[in-house]
Amino acid sequence: MILYLGRRLLGVLGVLLAIAAVTFTIFYVLPSDPAAAACGKACSDERLEAIRAHMGLDAPLWRQFADFVTGIFTGRTMGTGQYALRCDFPCLGYSYENSENVWDLLVDRLPVSASLAVGAAVLWLALGLTAGVTAALRKDTLTDRVLMVGAVAAASLPVYFTAVLLIYGLIRLTGLLPYPQYVSLTSDPLGWASNLILPWVALAVLYAAMYARQSRSSMIESMAEPYIRTARAKGLPRRTVVVKHGLRAGMTPVLTLFGMDLGGLLAGAVITESLFGLPGVGRLFYGALTSGDQPVILGVTLLAATFIVVANLAVDLLYAVVDPRVRY
Amino acid sequence: MNKRTRTLAIALVSTLGLGLGLAGCSGGSPAKGGPERKNPAAANTGAVLGGTPQKGGTLTVLSNQDFTHLDPARNWVMPDMDFGTRLLYRTLVTYKAAPGAGGSELVPDLAEDLGTPSNGAKTWTFRLKEGLKYEDGTPVTSQDVKHNVERSFSPDLPGGPDYAARYLAGADGYQGPAQGKHLASVKTPDARTIVFELRKPFAEFPFAATLPTFAPVPAAQDKGPQYDNRPFSSGPYKIESYARDKRMVLVRNPHWNPATDTVRKAYPDRIVVTMGLKGNQIDDRLISSAGTDASSVAWAALRPESTPKVLTKPEVRARLLAESSSCTEMVQMHTGRAPFDDPKVRKAVQYALDREAVITANGGPALNDPATAAMPGSLFEGGKQPDTLGIPLSGDVEKAKQLLKEAGKPDGFATSITVSTNDKGIAEAVQQSLGRVGIKVTIETVDPSAFYDTIGDTRNRTDLVYTGWCPDYPSGSTFLPFVFDGRYIKEKGNSGNHSLFRDDATMKRMDEIAAMSDGAAANKAWQELDGQILAKAPVAPASVERKPLLIGTNIAGAFGHTSYGGQIDYATVGLKDPSKGAN
């Protein structure tokens, strides 16, 4: 187990390094020049060169990349003389746009994205699994059909449509809810939930539909396994058969899906956060993309990659818990 | 100031719909080129809305974005300059707080007067008023103004106005005070006197002295790039908190002395800027103006799709400011490349362009006016552009065809135009209008973030580009040289002169005007030069956009300031009833 974990962690590092290298190279070959963007209009060549040197953009690609990677672990000093900025471990650099430490920006925005992702995940798991398992147990009945048609319909609704519909219906038309404004969980739990309910629903509708379909097919498959028949023949109560034997085995593919989805969402739901004006990692990323703020884009990309690979690893480890047949 | 500094996003579908809708509303007497455009939002132009504010309360600013830079050495975006210099830091000279043309009048701010020129306007001396203090009660000194001027040279602090770099003597190669080096051409003989020695005469130095570069930053408070997050106040408010891209709270600076300040009224007790809101939310909240939204003003321009909801309701329309942005948008032609190296072809484009269609595509007459000259109206007598071109607004197809025939292109030709994605509707209007004379235009849209890099690459760019320029202050010297001086052209990273216009007579005349010490004569000369340049047709002026801003029902003292691109003057805005402004 420990050997397996060590091997996987090394793999995680390799993946992250590769992603950083690719992102770095993309920026390097792009025609846009962050120094020119920072310099502003009617910028003299001399000043542009000075700014480029200050930003470290005059160094060759390999050098910039090596500085970035070593900087993550050892920290870096940027700028000159009185204006030098010390960026400590884990140093992801400073935003070109507002000179903020990228790591601090991520730490500041993460609670918003995490609140959105975890709340929506609870909602979609509850809705999706209930619908999926119910449909599987009542396979080919009217309930099954209604649930699955509903799931197909919900899955076809893009989040920007659902979000706009919710904003229009529940905020603008009826005034039932306020325009979402993020308040932290610790300062006002009720405000936190009431402001996030719409974004949760917007996200959960889409995911719940996908989970309902996935869990239905997994459940149908696992409920047809011989050990279910055995369990039934042993006279186990239906609840035990379904939950302990059927659901547990049927959850493996759902868990895989969940790991990827939650990992991706933790690093920001770009559209949902932008539509609801939530200052999370997704909106940070969107803003950085539109302004070409490379350090922030790189930081968010690495964060997202970390969440996804770590979530994958966690899911693989959880297989062993969920499915007794799996051993490492 | 180029379009990089503006963030007015235009949605194509709704703007087209809106434009068509408004065409039906326009009335008035017929004029050359079709019916006169009656701007339904222009009623408030030049007026102060809401009467005189009462002191106190909380003013809320609803914004879709964060400030670009509030560090005075880096602040060069019109709305941010307005916010910074009207609320947080004072400059040597500033603009009068007055609507309409009165807003271009200079008044002393930190300085006792508008500066004393000597040595043929190559030396400028300013003396600071007595009793100027920072938020901690320490006195503002001339050394602090010098320190900020020096900071503006630092590569660690890019983005700010470059007037100091362009005019100060001995500034070549200077890279700011961080390494302990200082500029000898800025002298501070005592704590209240500052002397600028320039490399060439500059009669308009007092205008440049309104820019945030000429605000004080005490060396002890200078935190380099981090100063952007917490500029030290010499104005009526100081920053209580600033969470970037989220929220800023300003509270009164108790050490600001109103007796030293003839401009800022500082009516509200607190100013809260809520950032990162969606544009449609801001529009909706201000249209309904409920609760604390009544005490709010918009930071972002009203979205074109929200315009019908405003213009159709007299009560809401009365709360819409729509001052001119003073930025002229133009179809700029590559004068160094065939067929646009032929002035006749370029003139044909001027005649073929349907400015009515461009305006319709960009939100209709409430959001922009047709351009009839290159420089915006604020640079002409009476604040209005003359009709230099004398071409009907919808174009003159016959004349354009005639010109193409004379140029040996009777069947037209194929070319392409680059526009920012936001301006795709405009590009289609240009495409259709030039198509009428056989010029087949292919549209290339570029993401706003890459737009200036793309059109700045002079070798690989398209023949036509659609972009504009906004003057930094009301003088032709901040417009014509930036847009038409061939010596500013760069092969990569070119900005301003996108027609790549290099005309010896024009450049010679620009130098002559720049050397004039009589400001009025210089202004008149710039205005004449504007017409002479347009006669050579490097560009086809298309529109001058307006800045439509909604205010809540409890807002008073609000007007769009002509010297800040039509942004609300934060020096005078406040609340009718402060008890309603709690937030």
TrEMBL record, chain A:
The keyword tRNA-binding does not apply. It comes from the Bacteria. It is a multi-pass membrane protein. GO terms for biological process: transmembrane transport. It is found in: Cell membrane. InterPro entries: BPD_transp_1_N (IPR045621), MetI-like (IPR000515), MetI-like_sf (IPR035906). Keywords: Cell membrane, Membrane, Transmembrane, Transmembrane helix, Transport. The chain crosses the membrane at residues 9-30, 112-134, 146-171, 191-212, 254-276, 296-322. Signal peptide: none annotated. GO terms for cellular component: plasma membrane. Residues 110-319 form the ABC transmembrane type-1 domain. Belongs to the binding-protein-dependent transport system permease family. PANTHER family: DIPEPTIDE TRANSPORT SYSTEM PERMEASE PROTEIN DPPB-RELATED. This is ABC transporter permease. It comes from Streptomyces termitum.
From TrEMBL, chain B:
One of its GO terms (biological process) is peptide transport. Residues 105-485 form the Solute-binding protein family domain. InterPro entries: Peptide/Ni-bd, SBP_5, SBP_5_dom. Keywords: Signal. CDD domains: PBP2_clavulanate_OppA2. GO terms for cellular component: ATP-binding cassette (ABC) transporter complex; periplasmic space. The keyword Signal applies. GO terms for molecular function: peptide transmembrane transporter activity. Residues 1-31 form the signal peptide. It comes from the Bacteria. This is ABC transporter substrate-binding protein. It comes from Streptomyces termitum.
